[in-house]
Amino acid sequence: MPAASALRDHARAMSLKPAVMAATAILLILVGVAALAPWIVPHDPYDLASLDLFDSHLPPAWMPGGDARYLFGTDSQGADLLSLLMLGLRTSLKVGVLAVAVSVSIGLLAGLVSGYFRGWTETIIMRAADIQFTFPAMLLALLIGGLARSMLPVGQQESAAIYIVVLALGISHWPHFARLVRAAVITEASKNYVMAARLAGRSHSGILFRHVMPNSLNPVFVLATMDIAFAIMTEATLSFLGFGMPTSQPSLGTLIKIGYGYLFSGEWWVVVFPSLTLIVLLVSVNVFGDWLRDRLDPKLR
Q1: Domains in the chain: how many in total?
Q2: Beta carbons of 296 and 219 less than 8 angstroms apart
Q3: What pLDDT is recorded for position 217?
Q4: For residue 47, which of 83, 20, 17 has the smallest C-alpha distance?
Q5: Helix axes 252-260, 81-117, angle to 10 degrees
Q6: Which residues cross the membrane (predicted)?
Q7: Can you tell me the distance from the alpha carbon of 39 to that of 35, in angstroms, rounded to the nearest whole number?
Q8: Residue 59 forms part of a structural domain
Q9: Reported pTM
Q10: DSSP code at position 208
Q11: Residue 250 sits in which domain range?
Q12: Best exposed site among 215, 216, 259, 289 by fewest CB in 10 Å?
């Protein structure tokens, strides 16, 4: 099916489900805001010259004592919370997408090799995946992150924080993709077109990457979409615990951690708005991922 026809078909199917349309629209808005955040933020929360402590702890603009310049209020440093949210959303999405890219890269290669060549190669790769499955993803991410930080000088740990988090999350999730791809490759490798390619003298790498892999990617797209939500949630948890992004590069999890300290002092907006943004983002990604699974899995159509 041509790409344009496929897109029209998916758009027509989505139009029949208002909840999916709403979730997709919200997701696109959030992604757009995150992508353009450095250029559209109302204020630069990192410009110390523009921060005014007299503007600290201001409530949202619609509440008594609020300031129209700060729609969602300010934090303890007088930084605009809306600007922090936009930049934090950008960081969270960046970490989620990059972490899943690492997981897909490792898992796709491992699944292709193990499913196509089988034998001892499959045994070694799948047993490694089984061993990793015995460790909770959160614990493994903490361990990998801690080891990576211990290898870096203290002065470089903060600047390398995003790469450490991405690496930790990416390595902790690859077995899911490896198992999924392996199962798909085993099915594809037994089909007639693969046998014909072998009889024609095609190389293993040519068969694997030109024929088998493209026909094994549909379930990977679905899992990757849903795994972005899991990666964002895990990063937010790590940041809340103090093992994720630093305050100089805040994610939504970092903002929730900072705002939690002000929750019981009456400054609820510092934690509520980042929490709501995270919830809306995760729900939108999951709803879209569920719909994508239904569309790409022929057994569910």
Answers
A1: 1
A2: yes
A3: 82
A4: 83
A5: 130
A6: 20-41, 95-117, 129-148, 160-181, 220-243, 268-292
A7: 9
A8: yes
A9: 0.86
A10: I
A11: 3-45+53-296
A12: 215
The answer as to whether 248 is a domain residue is yes
CB neighbours of 277 closer than 8 A, spacing ≥ 6? 30, 85, 88, 89, 252
Asked if the structure places residue 301 within a domain, the reply is no
SS3 (DSSP) at 74: strand
d(CA 95, CA 163): 8
What distance in Å separates the CA atoms of residue 109 and residue 62, rounded to the nearest whole number? 53
- State the 10-residue block means of pLDDT for the chain, 301 residues long: 57 71 91 92 82 83 87 86 92 92 92 87 89 80 78 74 86 88 85 78 78 81 86 86 78 86 80 92 89 68 51
Cβ density class 219-243: b for 16+ within 10 Å, e for less: bbebbbbbbbbbbbbbbbbbbbeeb
Q: How far apart are CA 141 and CA 20, in angstroms?
A: 32
pLDDT of residue 218: 80
Listed residue (163, 140, 136, 166) closest to 152, CA to CA? 163
Burial class (CB in 10 A: 0-12, 13-18, 19+), 74: buried
166 lies in some domain = yes
Q: What is the DSSP string of 12-44?
A: HHHHT-HHHHHHHHHHHHHHHHHHHHHHH-SS-
Give 56's contacts (C-beta < 8 A, 6+ positions apart).
74, 75, 76, 77, 78
Q: Looking at residue 28, what is its pLDDT?
A: 93
CA angle 255, 173, 126 (to 5 degrees): 170
Tokens of 80: 């605009």
Tokens of 212: 């088998």
Output phi, psi for 29, to 5 deg.
Answer: -65, -45
